[in-house]
């Protein structure tokens, strides 16, 4: 394992985030705060409790998930897309490093950034509503696994995309809608039966539910279904990345 | 531009990388073929050996396969068949050992516009798995006259400087072999001369250099050996001096009033050949040694003494350009 190379890629990616600290860190915090003002305070005051928790506290895990998914995908996809776009990818491909090491550098940095952002949003949320975390270790596990999985998804998108439009396409048309429809702002019990069944096909439901379980000890689906889903996702993402490097897809003719 | 690197320090890889004796093979390409996904065959069974310490120019028109050959050696393109050894290491099975010995300067100017010269060159070294070595980075930057620009962001640099930054990046990990893909494409005359100086300086530091070009002048100016590539085939690999000798040869054709059966004994001292069924005598001489005299005056005097009358005469000289054009058209 070429630790020096992984470290170099990882630190360069982290430095890129720090260079754009306003965009990277401040804007997710601001937008999360806005969600709290609008959904937590303005609308939430008219909703009493969901699953025995105040509405403001109820949406905290979902909001962190929403931010985690979008940030992981966008950071990782841009991270690998930009060198492809600028042409500087030649250097990475001609370096004495394995594909696994490339992935560890890029995806590791994107996941780290997302986890840090998740914790910042968690701290920000605490300023608005009081809540406690029932299973902190499970919460961290979910945070890390989700950041990792969706950073891998972002990495795949960054390799697949051949323009900036496509880079935006998946996050905009798939990730964000699935997250909004994934029980971020409501319990799926609140939906009519038909929509409830349909919603169970949405994988994000399992992530949000599992994450919420780690906070309040209850979720829409069982914690094991949630853990199983994230494991399945992670496995699928790893398989696709493996295939990309084996075939040289979009990287090596 | 002069290279001001202290003599104790070299830009080329030695020691751990095991730089060998000058002149020994450092890159060995064996029956290398590449067929792209769309069926286009970019390389056809290319065999090539690069010697340690030389400047090798790969000459060919656009689309001949120069970049594909370089890319296949450096690991940017998967070869369809054949193999490449870098300092004895297979570039697929032992890609780590092979690649750490190579520095690549691409044809297109690419860069991360917002990073500084120092950071991007240091990044390259780390990416290649080498521990930090600010002294080496400083030497590289000084050698390429980039030291004063080390804290500038790349977007503030001129095109010529950006090209030098790419060279600095490629030298950051002390490679044994440096690939320069079209180092002077789209560069004005002054910058081209400057780049030649840089390349020569690097060679003096012990770096083996392989450059591609479609400028004959560049190959002539720089190279120790020249390879000509045409439609994916390496059609000629030759010492430049040998090529230049062919280039330097000039022919004087003397059309005779009466045909001869053979070269008369009185003219045996001259390098003469009979042509056109005895209607002409062809005299070959070397224009690179004009100082020693062409021998034409003596020849003409001897012809007169022998009583051979000349109707007409003309001279012709083959140029590298002519050799090259013939080669790439496939007439050779």
CATH architecture of the largest domain in chain B: 3-Layer(aba) Sandwich
Q: Taking Cα atoms only, what radius of gyration of chain A do you get, to the nearest Å?
A: 19 Å
How much of the residues of chain A is beta strand, in percent? under 5%
Count of DSSP-assigned helices of chain A:
10
Mean pLDDT of chain B: 84
Number of folding domains of chain B? 2
Strand coverage percent of chain B: 25-35%
Helical fraction of chain A equals over 70%
- The quaternary organization reads as heterodimer
Question: Could you tell me the number of beta strands of chain A?
Answer: 2
Largest sheet of chain B: 6 strands, mixed
Number of helices of chain B: 10
Note the run of SSEs of chain B as H and E: EEEHEEHEHHHEHEHEEHEEEHEH
- Please identify which CATH superfamily of the largest domain in chain B we are dealing with: P-loop containing nucleotide triphosphate hydrolases
Count of strand segments of chain B: 14
Sheet with the most strands: spatial strand order of chain A: 1-2
Instruction: Give the N-terminus to C-terminus distance of chain A in angstroms.
Output: 25 Å
* Major sheet description of chain A: 2 strands, antiparallel
Describe what this molecule looks like in 3D:
The complex is a heterodimer of chains A (253) and B (332). In chain A, 77% of the residues lie in helices and 2% in strands. Chain A is an all-alpha fold. Chain A has one domain. A two-stranded antiparallel sheet of chain A has the order 1-2. In chain A, β1 (49-50) and β2 form a beta hairpin. The longest helix of chain A has 32 residues, at 55-86. Chain A starts with a helix and ends in a 6-residue tail after the last helix. In chain A, 44% of the residues are buried. The model of chain A has no long low-confidence stretch (mean pLDDT 88). Chain B is of the alpha/beta class and 332 residues long. Chain B folds into two domains: 15-231, Rossmann fold (3-Layer(aba) Sandwich); 245-329, Alpha-Beta Plaits (2-Layer Sandwich). In chain B, the strands form three sheets. In chain B, strands 6-7-8-3-9-10 form a six-stranded mixed beta sheet, with helices on both faces. A four-stranded antiparallel beta sheet of chain B has the order 2-1-4-5. In chain B, α3 runs parallel beside α5 (159-171). In chain B, 38% of the residues are buried.
């Amino acid at each position: 394992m070429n630790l020096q190379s992984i470290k170099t890629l990882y630190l360069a990616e982290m430095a890129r985030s720090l260079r754009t600290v306003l965009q990277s860190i401040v804007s997710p915090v601001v937008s999360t705060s806005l969600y709290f003002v609008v959904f937590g305070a303005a609308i939430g005051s008219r909703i009493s409790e969901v699953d025995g928790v105040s509405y403001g506290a109820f949406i905290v895990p979902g909001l962190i998930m929403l931010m985690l998914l979008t940030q992981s995908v966008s950071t990782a996809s841009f991270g690998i897309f930009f060198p492809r776009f600028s042409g500087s990818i030649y250097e990475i491909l001609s370096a004495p490093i394995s594909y696994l090491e490339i992935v560890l550098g890029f995806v590791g940095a994107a996941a780290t950034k997302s986890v840090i952002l998740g914790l910042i949003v968690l701290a920000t949320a605490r300023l608005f509503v009081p809540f406690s975390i029932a299973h902190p270790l499970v919460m961290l596990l979910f945070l890390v696994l989700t950041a990792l999985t969706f950073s891998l998804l972002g990495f795949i998108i960054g390799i697949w995309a051949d323009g900036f439009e496509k880079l935006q396409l998946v996050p905009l048309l798939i990730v964000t809608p699935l997250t909004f429809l994934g029980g971020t702002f409501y319990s799926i019990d609140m939906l009519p039966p038909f929509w409830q069944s349909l919603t169970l096909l949405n994988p994000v439901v399992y992530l949000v539910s599992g994450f919420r379980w780690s906070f309040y000890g209850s979720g829409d689906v069982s914690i094991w279904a949630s853990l199983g889903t994230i494991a399945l996702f992670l496995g699928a993402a790893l398989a696709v990345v493996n295939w990309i490097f084996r075939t040289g897809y979009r990287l090596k003719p | 531009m002069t290279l001001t690197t202290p003599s104790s320090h070299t830009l080329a890889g030695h020691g751990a990388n095991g730089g060998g004796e000058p002149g020994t093979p450092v890159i060995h390409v064996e029956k290398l073929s590449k067929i792209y996904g769309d069926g286009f065959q970019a390389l056809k069974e290319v065999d090539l050996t690069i010697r340690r310490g030389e400047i090798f120019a790969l000459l060919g028109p656009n689309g001949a396969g120069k970049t594909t050959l370089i890319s296949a050696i450096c690991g940017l393109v998967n070869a369809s068949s054949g193999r490449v050894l870098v300092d004895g290491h297979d570039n697929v099975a032992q890609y780590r050992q092979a690649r750490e010995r190579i520095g690549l300067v691409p044809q297109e100017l690419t860069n991360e516009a917002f990073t500084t010269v120092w950071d991007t060159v240091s990044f390259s070294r780390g990416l290649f798995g080498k521990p930090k070595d600010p002294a080496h980075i400083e030497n590289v930057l000084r050698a390429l006259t980039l030291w004063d620009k080390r804290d500038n962001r790349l977007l503030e640099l001129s095109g010529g400087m950006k090209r030098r930054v790419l060279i600095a990046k490629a030298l950051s990990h002390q490679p044994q072999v440096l690939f320069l893909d079209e180092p002077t494409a789209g560069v004005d005359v002054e910058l081209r001369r400057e780049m030649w100086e840089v390349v020569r300086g690097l060679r003096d530091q012990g770096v083996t250099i392989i450059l591609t070009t479609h400028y004959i002048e560049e190959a002539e100016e720089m190279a120790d050996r020249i390879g000509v590539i045409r439609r994916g085939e390496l059609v000629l690999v030759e010492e430049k001096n040998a090529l230049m000798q062919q280039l330097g040869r000039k022919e004087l054709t003397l059309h005779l009033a009466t045909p001869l059966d053979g070269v008369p004994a009185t003219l045996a001292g001259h390098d003469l050949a009979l042509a056109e069924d005895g209607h002409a005598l062809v005299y070959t001489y070397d224009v690179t040694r004009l100082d020693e005299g062409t021998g034409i005056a003596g020849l003409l005097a001897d012809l007169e003494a022998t009583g051979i009358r000349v109707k007409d005469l003309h001279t012709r000289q083959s140029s590298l350009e002519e050799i090259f054009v013939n080669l790439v058209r496939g007439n050779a």
